[in-house]
Design brief:
single chain; alpha/beta; 16% strand; binds flavin mononucleotide; OxRdtase_FMN_N; 12-oxophytodienoate reductase activity; flavoprotein
Length: 380
């Protein structure tokens, strides 16, 4: 090996090897590279039931020994806030996931299901019997421009969960994790990011409770950690990851001290021995995209004892650098993986990337903007 350009080594056979392509042992899973499919909501699961077209979509993005995280998937009939997002609380949904998971496994991928509850980021139209969405609080959200930049989402003021109702919601996450195992997933990622229910408890600018789930940092993180514990007890901590975004402000959920929040969670998570912690970069503060940020995930990375995954605004070069410098174990790619089904191969060859089309991120079409992004061979 001799030194190459920034973070690369040129091996003696003249081929360039990059750190993103070093194998990695994540608990019991042998990953062949460090490039992860980030969870991506695509709103093509009609009636909250995963559809056959998702088999092709996910298998296109599978590489042998690659880790994929499925789109956010509802844990119960109160968990939805967007049309046609998948669920995993009914038998029909579990059965519908099975061929999708099989398609990923057939190509040697490792597939985790992101389990989700939107909390107050919803309206009564998504709720059973038109009831109010549930949350840590009864503070309403202002109408919000959707990520597609066109639609304006309207929210129904939420109903604050009573303390005695909270175990039921934790149990919904536990059952969803059990169902994910039944569907054949290799594990679950608890969605503790982006202003959804778990963050509505964690973040001090939302949580205004006075019971044991509100107030101090410890109290605000209790809900998240009780979910981690319940899910770990159900399926084994070696199959459990969590996603956090302490620095993000999405869905009106900022925190006045995100550094302490991130660090507290990393240290608390160590007690459960979960497989991974997946954290969104501070530069993804707003839904609009990358901004300059003086903050770093390094203290959280150093505090957490399991596998660390970063996401948010990464390209081939800075992802490679982050692994080379040991700032992370794995790098999750969202929009570039959405638009490049063969992203790992393109990175390996340093090939050009397809551009993503934001307009079809959340449209219903089972092909357009979903499974029709070209592979390298067909663009050559
Ligand atoms: C279309 C789309 C859907 C997304 N859906 C989810 C989701 O379901 N769960 C989640 O945690 N993050 C979701 N995200 C955030 C991504 O996982 C990722 O963190 C974000 O796109 C930043 O990474 P990138 O710069 O590589 O795209 C979504 C992003 C996009 C663009």
């Amino acid at each position: 090996m001799k030194g190459g350009v920034d973070g690369e080594n040129i091996s003696s056979n003249g081929l360039s090897t990059i750190h993103l392509f070093t194998p990695y042992k994540m608990g019991n899973f042998n990953l062949s590279h460090r490039i992860v499919l980030a969870p991506l909501t695509r709103q093509r699961s009609f009636g909250n039931v995963p559809q056959p077209h998702a088999s092709l979509y996910y298998s296109q993005r599978t590489s042998k020994g690659g880790l994929l995280i499925a789109e956010a998937t509802g844990v119960s009939d109160t968990a939805q806030g967007y049309p046609d997002t998948p669920g995993i609380w009914t038998n029909e949904q579990v059965e519908a996931w099975k061929p999708i998971v099989d398609a990923v496994h057939a190509k040697g991928g490792i597939f985790f299901c992101q389990i989700w509850h939107v909390g107050r980021v919803s309206n009564s139209g998504f709720q059973p019997n038109g009831q109010a969405p549930i949350s840590s609080t009864d503070k309403p959200l202002r109408p919000q421009l959707r990520a597609n930049g066109i639609d304006v989402a309207q929210f129904t003021p939420p109903r604050r969960l009573r303390t005695d109702e909270i175990p039921k919601i934790i149990n919904d996450f536990r059952l969803a994790a059990r169902n994910a195992m039944e569907a054949g997933f290799d594990g679950v990622e608890i969605h503790g990011a982006h202003g959804y229910l778990i963050e509505q408890f964690m973040k001090d600018q939302v949580n205004d409770r006075t019971d044991q789930y509100g107030g101090s940092l410890e109290n605000r993180c209790r809900f998240a950690l009780e979910i981690v514990e319940a899910v770990s007890n159900e399926i084994g901590a070696d199959r459990v990851g969590i996603r956090l975004s302490p620095f993000a402000d999405y869905c009106e959920a900022p925190d006045s001290n995100p550094k302490s929040l991130g660090l507290y969670m990393a240290e608390a998570l160590n007690q459960y021995g979960i497989l991974y912690c997946h954290v969104v970069e501070p530069r993804m503060k707003n839904i609009g995209g990358k901004v300059e940020s003086p903050d770093s995930l390094l203290p959280i990375r150093k505090a957490f004892k399991g596998t660390f995954i970063v996401a948010g605004g990464y390209d081939r070069e800075d992802g490679n650098k982050a692994v080379a410098e040991n700032h992370t174990d794995l790098v999750a790619y969202g929009r570039s993986f959405l638009a490049n089904p063969d992203l790992p191969q393109r990175f390996e060859l340093n090939a050009p990337l397809n551009k993503y089309n934001r307009e079809t991120f959340y449209t219903k079409d089972p092909i357009i903007g979903y499974t029709d992004y070209p592979f390298l061979e067909s663009t050559a």
